[in-house]
Amino acid sequence: MTRGALVSGVTFLLAGATVLAAAELRPGSFRSAALGRDVSYLVDLPASYDASPGRRYPVLYVLHGLFEGPGFWQQRGLAAVAERLRGRGALPELLVVAVDGGNSFFVDGRTGRYREMLTADLIAHVEASYRVVPGVSARGLLGVSMGGYAALSIAFSRPGLFAAVATHSAMLLDRAPSAGQGAGRWQMAAFHAVFGDPIDPGLWSLNDPLVWARMADAKAAPALYFDCGADDRYGLASGHRELPRILGERHVPHTLELPPGDHGYAFVRSRLETSLVFLGRALGERPSTGD
Predict the structure, then answer these.
(1) Residue 11 reports pLDDT greater than 70
(2) What is the C-alpha to C-alpha distance for residues 117 and 105, in angstroms, rounded to an integer?
(3) What residue spans define the domains of the chain?
(4) d(CA 269, CA 290)
(5) What digits encode the pLDDT tens for the residues 21-62?
(6) What is the dihedral angle through the alpha carbons of 22, 23, 27, 33, rounded to the nearest 10 degrees?
(7) For helices 78-88 and 265-283, what crossing angle results, to 10°?
(8) Superfamily for domain range 23-283
Protein backbone atom coordinates (compact mmCIF):
# COMPACT_ATOMS: atom_id res chain seq x y z
CA MET A 1 0.00 0.00 0.00
CA THR A 2 1.29 3.46 -0.90
CA ARG A 3 1.74 6.15 1.76
CA GLY A 4 -1.11 8.17 0.20
CA ALA A 5 -3.47 5.20 0.31
CA LEU A 6 -2.52 4.49 3.91
CA VAL A 7 -3.23 8.10 4.96
CA SER A 8 -6.56 8.02 3.12
CA GLY A 9 -7.51 4.79 4.86
CA VAL A 10 -6.65 6.13 8.29
CA THR A 11 -8.60 9.33 7.57
CA PHE A 12 -11.62 7.24 6.58
CA LEU A 13 -11.43 5.16 9.75
CA LEU A 14 -11.15 8.23 11.96
CA ALA A 15 -14.05 9.89 10.20
CA GLY A 16 -16.22 6.85 10.76
CA ALA A 17 -15.19 6.29 14.35
CA THR A 18 -17.44 7.22 17.27
CA VAL A 19 -15.76 9.87 19.41
CA LEU A 20 -16.51 9.25 23.08
CA ALA A 21 -17.42 12.34 25.08
CA ALA A 22 -15.47 13.09 28.22
CA ALA A 23 -16.79 13.53 31.73
CA GLU A 24 -17.48 17.09 32.88
CA LEU A 25 -16.19 18.67 36.08
CA ARG A 26 -18.72 21.26 37.17
CA PRO A 27 -18.35 23.54 40.24
CA GLY A 28 -21.38 24.44 42.32
CA SER A 29 -22.58 25.62 45.71
CA PHE A 30 -25.54 25.05 48.00
CA ARG A 31 -27.00 26.58 51.13
CA SER A 32 -26.20 24.55 54.23
CA ALA A 33 -28.68 24.95 57.07
CA ALA A 34 -26.22 23.25 59.42
CA LEU A 35 -23.49 25.82 58.75
CA GLY A 36 -25.75 28.78 57.99
CA ARG A 37 -23.87 29.64 54.79
CA ASP A 38 -23.17 28.55 51.24
CA VAL A 39 -20.76 25.64 50.72
CA SER A 40 -18.88 24.94 47.49
CA TYR A 41 -18.53 21.57 45.80
CA LEU A 42 -17.34 19.97 42.57
CA VAL A 43 -19.39 17.42 40.67
CA ASP A 44 -17.83 15.00 38.18
CA LEU A 45 -20.57 14.19 35.69
CA PRO A 46 -20.29 11.11 33.47
CA ALA A 47 -20.13 11.68 29.73
CA SER A 48 -23.65 10.33 29.23
CA TYR A 49 -25.28 12.70 31.74
CA ASP A 50 -26.40 15.51 29.41
CA ALA A 51 -27.07 13.15 26.52
CA SER A 52 -29.42 10.89 28.54
CA PRO A 53 -32.00 13.16 30.19
CA GLY A 54 -34.17 10.25 31.30
CA ARG A 55 -31.41 8.38 33.10
CA ARG A 56 -30.56 8.45 36.81
CA TYR A 57 -27.21 7.55 38.32
CA PRO A 58 -25.57 6.30 41.51
CA VAL A 59 -23.49 8.93 43.32
CA LEU A 60 -20.12 8.74 45.04
CA TYR A 61 -19.29 11.37 47.65
CA VAL A 62 -15.55 11.98 48.09
CA LEU A 63 -13.94 13.64 51.12
CA HIS A 64 -10.62 15.50 50.93
CA GLY A 65 -7.71 15.64 53.34
CA LEU A 66 -6.49 18.38 55.66
CA PHE A 67 -5.60 21.76 54.06
CA GLU A 68 -7.49 20.87 50.86
CA GLY A 69 -10.85 21.51 49.26
CA PRO A 70 -13.22 20.03 46.67
CA GLY A 71 -10.74 20.73 43.86
CA PHE A 72 -8.55 17.92 45.16
CA TRP A 73 -10.51 15.44 43.06
CA GLN A 74 -9.17 17.04 39.88
CA GLN A 75 -5.93 18.63 41.10
CA ARG A 76 -4.55 15.45 42.64
CA GLY A 77 -5.19 13.39 39.50
CA LEU A 78 -8.04 11.37 40.96
CA ALA A 79 -10.65 12.42 38.40
CA ALA A 80 -8.31 11.20 35.65
CA VAL A 81 -8.09 7.77 37.28
CA ALA A 82 -11.89 7.56 37.44
CA GLU A 83 -12.17 8.62 33.80
CA ARG A 84 -9.75 5.89 32.70
CA LEU A 85 -11.79 3.32 34.59
CA ARG A 86 -15.00 4.53 32.99
CA GLY A 87 -13.36 4.31 29.59
CA ARG A 88 -12.42 0.67 30.21
CA GLY A 89 -15.85 -0.16 31.55
CA ALA A 90 -14.34 -0.97 34.96
CA LEU A 91 -16.39 1.74 36.71
CA PRO A 92 -20.12 2.22 36.15
CA GLU A 93 -21.50 5.54 35.05
CA LEU A 94 -21.95 7.50 38.27
CA LEU A 95 -21.69 11.03 39.63
CA VAL A 96 -18.80 11.99 41.91
CA VAL A 97 -19.35 14.85 44.37
CA ALA A 98 -16.50 16.49 46.29
CA VAL A 99 -17.57 18.98 48.97
CA ASP A 100 -15.59 21.65 50.82
CA GLY A 101 -15.05 20.49 54.39
CA GLY A 102 -12.29 22.98 55.20
CA ASN A 103 -10.13 21.70 58.04
CA SER A 104 -13.17 20.52 59.98
CA PHE A 105 -12.46 16.76 59.96
CA PHE A 106 -16.10 16.68 58.80
CA VAL A 107 -17.30 16.60 62.41
CA ASP A 108 -19.83 18.64 64.33
CA GLY A 109 -17.18 20.47 66.31
CA ARG A 110 -16.11 23.92 67.38
CA THR A 111 -15.80 25.20 63.81
CA GLY A 112 -19.35 24.23 62.83
CA ARG A 113 -21.71 21.33 62.14
CA TYR A 114 -19.82 19.84 59.21
CA ARG A 115 -21.04 16.28 59.76
CA GLU A 116 -24.62 17.50 59.51
CA MET A 117 -23.72 19.56 56.43
CA LEU A 118 -22.42 16.43 54.73
CA THR A 119 -24.90 13.79 55.82
CA ALA A 120 -28.06 15.91 55.57
CA ASP A 121 -27.69 19.15 53.60
CA LEU A 122 -25.35 17.98 50.84
CA ILE A 123 -27.17 14.73 50.15
CA ALA A 124 -30.53 16.52 50.06
CA HIS A 125 -29.13 19.11 47.64
CA VAL A 126 -27.59 16.54 45.31
CA GLU A 127 -30.71 14.37 45.22
CA ALA A 128 -32.86 17.42 44.47
CA SER A 129 -30.54 19.01 41.90
CA TYR A 130 -29.10 16.10 39.91
CA ARG A 131 -30.53 13.00 38.33
CA VAL A 132 -29.31 10.52 40.90
CA VAL A 133 -31.02 7.45 42.26
CA PRO A 134 -32.17 8.46 45.76
CA GLY A 135 -31.55 6.29 48.78
CA VAL A 136 -28.78 4.36 50.43
CA SER A 137 -28.45 1.63 47.79
CA ALA A 138 -27.07 4.11 45.24
CA ARG A 139 -24.76 6.09 47.56
CA GLY A 140 -21.04 5.51 48.10
CA LEU A 141 -18.47 7.34 50.22
CA LEU A 142 -14.70 7.65 49.65
CA GLY A 143 -12.29 9.48 51.93
CA VAL A 144 -8.58 10.32 51.97
CA SER A 145 -6.62 10.93 55.20
CA MET A 146 -8.80 13.42 57.15
CA GLY A 147 -11.65 12.52 54.82
CA GLY A 148 -10.98 8.83 55.43
CA TYR A 149 -11.30 9.40 59.17
CA ALA A 150 -14.70 11.01 58.59
CA ALA A 151 -15.83 8.34 56.12
CA LEU A 152 -15.14 5.50 58.55
CA SER A 153 -16.72 7.38 61.44
CA ILE A 154 -19.87 7.86 59.35
CA ALA A 155 -19.80 4.24 58.15
CA PHE A 156 -20.06 2.98 61.73
CA SER A 157 -22.16 5.74 63.33
CA ARG A 158 -24.61 6.13 60.41
CA PRO A 159 -24.72 2.65 58.83
CA GLY A 160 -27.98 3.31 56.96
CA LEU A 161 -26.61 6.21 54.93
CA PHE A 162 -24.18 4.66 52.39
CA ALA A 163 -24.11 1.30 50.64
CA ALA A 164 -20.31 1.20 50.47
CA VAL A 165 -17.41 3.09 52.05
CA ALA A 166 -13.74 3.09 51.06
CA THR A 167 -10.76 5.00 52.46
CA HIS A 168 -7.07 5.60 51.80
CA SER A 169 -4.65 6.44 54.64
CA ALA A 170 -7.51 7.25 57.01
CA MET A 171 -6.54 9.10 60.17
CA LEU A 172 -6.91 6.15 62.56
CA LEU A 173 -5.21 7.00 65.86
CA ASP A 174 -5.17 4.91 69.02
CA ARG A 175 -5.31 8.10 71.11
CA ALA A 176 -5.98 11.82 70.64
CA PRO A 177 -3.36 13.42 68.37
CA SER A 178 -0.23 15.09 69.67
CA ALA A 179 2.98 16.52 68.31
CA GLY A 180 4.74 13.46 69.68
CA GLN A 181 2.86 11.31 67.17
CA GLY A 182 4.35 13.25 64.28
CA ALA A 183 1.71 15.97 63.82
CA GLY A 184 3.25 19.28 62.78
CA ARG A 185 2.50 22.77 64.06
CA TRP A 186 -0.21 23.54 61.52
CA GLN A 187 -1.79 20.10 61.88
CA MET A 188 -2.01 20.52 65.66
CA ALA A 189 -3.53 23.97 65.14
CA ALA A 190 -6.24 22.37 63.00
CA PHE A 191 -6.91 19.69 65.63
CA HIS A 192 -7.16 22.31 68.36
CA ALA A 193 -9.52 24.50 66.33
CA VAL A 194 -11.98 21.62 66.00
CA PHE A 195 -11.49 19.56 69.16
CA GLY A 196 -10.23 22.20 71.62
CA ASP A 197 -6.89 22.98 73.21
CA PRO A 198 -6.29 20.78 75.06
CA ILE A 199 -8.27 18.30 72.96
CA ASP A 200 -11.66 17.52 74.48
CA PRO A 201 -11.58 13.73 75.06
CA GLY A 202 -15.37 13.49 74.90
CA LEU A 203 -15.59 15.24 71.54
CA TRP A 204 -12.69 13.18 70.23
CA SER A 205 -14.32 9.88 71.31
CA LEU A 206 -17.65 10.97 69.86
CA ASN A 207 -16.06 11.02 66.38
CA ASP A 208 -13.32 8.38 66.66
CA PRO A 209 -13.83 5.61 64.05
CA LEU A 210 -12.14 3.06 66.32
CA VAL A 211 -14.63 3.84 69.11
CA TRP A 212 -17.59 3.56 66.74
CA ALA A 213 -16.22 0.34 65.24
CA ARG A 214 -16.63 -1.32 68.65
CA MET A 215 -20.38 -0.79 68.27
CA ALA A 216 -20.65 -1.71 64.58
CA ASP A 217 -23.58 -3.86 63.52
CA ALA A 218 -22.56 -6.62 61.12
CA LYS A 219 -26.02 -6.67 59.53
CA ALA A 220 -26.26 -2.92 58.98
CA ALA A 221 -22.67 -1.95 58.12
CA PRO A 222 -21.92 -0.82 54.56
CA ALA A 223 -19.49 -2.69 52.35
CA LEU A 224 -16.04 -1.66 53.59
CA TYR A 225 -12.63 -1.29 51.95
CA PHE A 226 -9.68 0.54 53.53
CA ASP A 227 -5.95 0.67 52.95
CA CYS A 228 -2.86 2.44 54.25
CA GLY A 229 0.81 2.48 53.43
CA ALA A 230 2.73 0.13 55.70
CA ASP A 231 5.38 2.88 55.99
CA ASP A 232 2.92 5.72 56.71
CA ARG A 233 5.00 8.45 58.36
CA TYR A 234 2.22 9.33 60.80
CA GLY A 235 2.01 5.78 62.10
CA LEU A 236 -1.48 5.26 60.70
CA ALA A 237 -0.73 1.66 59.73
CA SER A 238 -1.05 0.80 63.42
CA GLY A 239 -4.66 1.96 63.54
CA HIS A 240 -5.35 0.09 60.32
CA ARG A 241 -4.17 -3.10 61.96
CA GLU A 242 -6.38 -2.41 64.97
CA LEU A 243 -9.55 -1.69 63.01
CA PRO A 244 -9.86 -5.14 61.36
CA ARG A 245 -9.27 -6.78 64.74
CA ILE A 246 -12.22 -4.83 66.15
CA LEU A 247 -14.40 -5.52 63.11
CA GLY A 248 -13.50 -9.20 63.28
CA GLU A 249 -14.79 -9.36 66.83
CA ARG A 250 -18.03 -7.73 65.62
CA HIS A 251 -18.19 -10.09 62.59
CA VAL A 252 -18.32 -7.09 60.23
CA PRO A 253 -17.16 -7.97 56.68
CA HIS A 254 -14.35 -5.76 55.41
CA THR A 255 -11.27 -5.64 53.18
CA LEU A 256 -7.94 -4.25 54.42
CA GLU A 257 -4.76 -3.81 52.41
CA LEU A 258 -1.43 -2.63 53.86
CA PRO A 259 0.98 -2.47 50.91
CA PRO A 260 4.35 -0.71 51.08
CA GLY A 261 4.01 3.05 50.90
CA ASP A 262 3.99 6.36 52.74
CA HIS A 263 1.34 9.00 53.44
CA GLY A 264 0.52 11.10 50.38
CA TYR A 265 -1.09 11.17 46.97
CA ALA A 266 1.52 9.00 45.30
CA PHE A 267 0.18 6.22 47.50
CA VAL A 268 -3.48 7.22 46.99
CA ARG A 269 -3.17 7.25 43.19
CA SER A 270 -1.50 3.83 43.30
CA ARG A 271 -4.51 2.42 45.17
CA LEU A 272 -7.43 4.40 43.77
CA GLU A 273 -8.33 1.95 41.02
CA THR A 274 -8.81 -0.74 43.66
CA SER A 275 -11.13 1.36 45.80
CA LEU A 276 -13.14 2.72 42.85
CA VAL A 277 -13.68 -0.75 41.39
CA PHE A 278 -14.79 -1.93 44.86
CA LEU A 279 -17.25 0.96 45.17
CA GLY A 280 -18.45 0.58 41.59
CA ARG A 281 -19.28 -3.07 42.15
CA ALA A 282 -21.21 -2.23 45.32
CA LEU A 283 -23.22 0.51 43.62
CA GLY A 284 -23.45 -0.97 40.15
CA GLU A 285 -25.65 0.31 37.39
CA ARG A 286 -29.04 1.54 38.53
CA PRO A 287 -32.16 1.54 36.33
CA SER A 288 -33.50 4.84 35.05
CA THR A 289 -36.50 6.11 37.01
CA GLY A 290 -37.33 9.01 34.71
CA ASP A 291 -37.16 12.74 35.32
Answers:
(1) no
(2) 12
(3) 23-283
(4) 35
(5) 578 999 999 999 999 999 999 999 999 999 999 999 999 999
(6) 170
(7) 40
(8) Alpha/Beta hydrolase fold, catalytic domain (3.40.50.1820)
